[in-house]
Design a protein that fits this description.
Layout (H helix, E strand, L loop, with lengths): L4 E3 L2 E9 L5 E9 L7 E4 L4 E2 L2 H18 L2
Antiparallel strand pairs: 1-2, 2-3, 3-4, 3-5
Length: about 70
């Protein structure tokens, strides 16, 4: 499951990837939404969860903290 959220001028796209062992990897893509700077950052397997929703929530929280730190 994937979802896109805008946060402080960034497109935050958390994703949960089901792994063969039954866990979900929390993945994340962050992209600046301004036309002059379309740079994207991707983070794979930030952590692992038994529940898909927990993986998505964690990736989104992690993305917000990353953005707050880099502004």
């Amino acid at each position: 499951m994937n979802s896109h959220i805008r946060y402080k001028g960034y497109e935050v796209a958390p994703a949960a990837q089901l792994l063969p062992n039954g866990l979900f990897a929390a993945n994340l893509t962050i992209e600046k939404t301004s036309a002059n700077n379309g740079k994207a950052y991707s983070f794979d397997a930030l952590d692992y969860f038994f529940d898909e929703e927990h993986a998505l929530a964690y990736a989104f929280r992690w993305g917000r903290m990353w953005i707050d730190h880099h502004q």
